[in-house]
Specification:
Order of helices and strands: HHHHHHHH
Radius of gyration: 20 Å
Number of helices: 8
Structural class: mainly alpha
Largest sheet: none
Number of strands: 0
Low-confidence stretches: none
Mean pLDDT: 81
Strand content: under 5%
């Protein structure tokens, strides 16, 4: 499935979602507090906040996993993966900057991704863990569909 690729490509989305959930939790808690003082509040409001916190924690966990795996890599691999997947710098631009061929850059990206995947596996974060914990999230489906043929995505997730 190339789950490591999906994790790399999705990190920005995950981080934005976690930050958005933090804001929603704060707003919900403030309105719940106001309602509690005026009308007595409801257990439903507390349950809504708990659901938001749980979702935020899931997003923050995957961010920590990705960042931890990146930090364990040699600096050159970490920098390359950040440029390609977070800053969206095309491999041809990287090749120009370092006066090397595109095939060399592609090979280095592949090596860096393999090292990243090894770091994930060494931490106990395999594809099964990823799919069980995050397979249902929209960003996983969205990025998975972009990396495989539509027929394969339909088999994995049902008709998307």
């Amino acid at each position: 499935m190339n789950y490591e690729l999906i994790m790399l490509k999705s990190l920005k989305q995950i981080k934005r979602a976690a930050d958005g959930l933090k804001k929603r939790i704060r707003i919900k808690a403030e309105s719940s507090y106001c309602t509690l003082n005026v009308k007595g509040g409801t257990i439903g409001q507390i349950e809504e906040i708990a659901v938001l916190i749980e979702k935020r924690n899931e997003y923050e966990e995957i961010c920590q996993v990705v960042v931890g795996a990146l930090k364990s890599l040699p600096r050159s691999y970490c920098v390359l993966l950040r440029k390609v997947y977070f800053n969206n710098v095309p491999c041809c631009k990287i090749a120009e900057k370092y006066n090397t061929s595109r095939s060399t850059v592609y090979r280095r990206v592949f090596q860096a991704r393999e090292a990243f995947k090894d770091a994930l596996l060494n931490g106990g974060y395999d594809e099964r863990w990823f799919m069980e914990n995050y397979g249902k999230l929209g960003f996983v489906r969205q990025n998975y569909i972009l990396t495989v043929p539509k027929s394969q995505a339909d088999r994995e997730f049902g008709s998307v």
